[in-house]
Design brief:
The chain is an all-alpha fold. It has 13 helices and no strands. The chain has helices at residues 2-12, 23-38, 48-60, 70-75, 79-83, 89-102, 117-132, 139-152, 159-164, 169-183, 193-214, 230-252, 258-286. Helix 8 (139-152) packs antiparallel against helix 10 and helix 12 (230-252) packs antiparallel against helix 13.
């Protein structure tokens, strides 16, 4: 009952008017994290509390999201950007909100009740690291770290070896990466799910771009409704971010990624065809 009440409160902490960063997105990321764990990532869990921490982090990773990303927060010099010194602004806010408000103000939903001080410190540290690693600014840095671990271990994919490497830091990094991939996994979902999420994220981006234009701020990438192509936005995202990330995960848990990568390739092909249609329609409108 404590967990159910906790999840109800967490759901209420999401901004329902956000087209994308809402409670449905959180539930999707939580479910996808669970799936990736079952696909093989669970073998990298060293302690049961580590898996528990990962799933809690998935549920809370975007609480109180204002619908405008870190670029906006920093450029607008918002209170939250100033508080967190322009570093992983929203991610720091999300995890701080969990411990200061969701749990701090309502001890009757303390899902960590019964843990020793050492266990609680470990769980808290894991959740903080994992949520902050969902910041897209850290994406390529974290990719490089995992590639470095693979190189240092000569491509070994035995989870036992990863758990023993650098006192378990490498294995923990895999789990953090799993949540990050769950967070950007929309292009790995079948139709019509990937299209629905695309439209929702672009709706939110365009609203941000409108606000940025009104406030004379730089318009963030993919936020200008006048210049952003629906198809092109997804082609670039898949080619340069999502597909390489899942290909890297395949090197670490090779037994289960094939079907996911096939879906990503299928969705990439869909958007490439959609781009051709977009360009044809644009050409026809430009003709005298």
């Amino acid at each position: 009952s404590t967990m159910c009440e906790f999840l109800r409160v967490v759901e209420s902490e999401y901004n329902a008017i956000n087209p994308y960063h809402n409670a449905t997105h959180a539930a999707d990321v939580l479910q996808t994290t669970h799936v990736l764990l079952q696909c093989g990532a669970k073998k990298f869990v060293s302690k049961s509390l580590e898996e528990y921490s990962l799933l809690v982090a998935a549920a809370v990773h975007d609480i109180q999201h204002p619908g405008k990303n870190n670029n906006y927060q920093i450029n607008a010099r918002t209170e939250v950007a100033l508080r967190y010194n322009d570093t992983a602004v929203l991610e720091n806010m999300h995890v701080s909100r969990l411990f200061s408000h969701v749990l701090g103000a309502r001890r009757n939903i303390d899902i960590f009740n019964g843990l020793t001080e050492e266990q609680y410190s470990s769980v808290r540290a894991c959740i903080i690291r994992t949520v902050i690693d969902t910041d897209m600014a850290r994406h390529f840095r974290n990719m490089s770290k995992l590639k470095g671990y693979l190189a240092e271990m000569d491509g070994v994919v035995d989870p036992k070896e990863w758990k023993g490497f650098q006192n378990g830091i490498a294995a923990s990094k895999v789990l953090q990466f799993v949540l990050h991939l769950a967070d950007i996994s929309n292009p790995a979902k079948p139709a019509p799910v990937f299209e629905e999420w695309t439209d929702r994220v672009l709706e939110e981006f365009f609203a941000q771009g409108d606000a940025e234009a009104k406030e004379n701020l730089p318009i963030s990438p993919l936020c200008d409704r006048k210049t952003t192509s629906r198809a092109s936005s997804q082609i670039g995202f898949i080619r340069y971010v999502v597909k390489p990330a899942f290909e890297l995960l395949e090197q670490i848990i090779p037994e289960s990624m094939g079907e996911i990568l096939d879906q990503i390739d299928s969705n990439l092909s869909y958007w490439e065809q959609a781009l051709v249609k977009e360009e044809m329609e644009k050409s026809s409108l430009d003709e005298p």
